[in-house]
Amino acid sequence: MKRYSIGEIAARAGVTVDTVRFYERKGLLPEPPRTAAGYRRYPAETVDRLLFVQRGKALGFTLEEVGGLLDLHLTTGEPHSPDVRRQAAIKVEEIDRKLRDLTEMRNHLQALVDACDPSRDPDACVILESLSGMRRSGDPRNGEKGHPPMETPEEGGNMSTSHHETSHAAVRTIEVFTAGCPCCDDALDLVQGIACPSCRVEARDMRDPQVQERARELGIRSVPAVAVNGVLADCCAGRGPNEEALRAAGVGAGPT
Length: 256
What we know:
This protein is α+β, with helices and mostly antiparallel strands. Helix content is about 50%, strand content about 10%.
């Protein structure tokens, strides 16, 4: 039976080498046999497992949930599993809640767009004022300058979701720059472990020339390094990633 290197198996599944290693550490992939020289050699079915995990994540399941589904997939011979249906139904409920939150966010933003119509008042931009947390002096909608903006706008939309809640509901792109070293693997594990559902974690292999160019754009001088929404985390400018600084940068739930 033909076996593949970690690079070959990652390419066939459309993932990075770091992702394969991470899934191994999480128990989603069995540890492959090694050659006499110590190199991992993966069977072809590893690709199917990787694709199963990726599809599960795309449907909103956590890695822990994907692991449970994978176990059921491998152990049950039934074409329809009640356990799988139940877990999928729970996930549908979670998605429905997120859709309601997103609808509320959209209404909030649309109300700001409508209120910032330059054809009515070229000098008014309540979007910027809302982001800065204050209104202009004399604005009848919010009283004196420095007062927090009203939660409910005059025209359309529902702004009952606070700015704090809205910011945490938005998707964050977390880029983890690695070079395949043990320290880099630990950093990726840390980020994956504390990332919230709204965090999209992307491993960046510095051996890729395009990733190297991206790292230069962000001012990365060493790895591991983490960038949140295109901004290098403060902790990565010197001694490396740590949980407190990563949470402060927006990974996971963030500081309360």
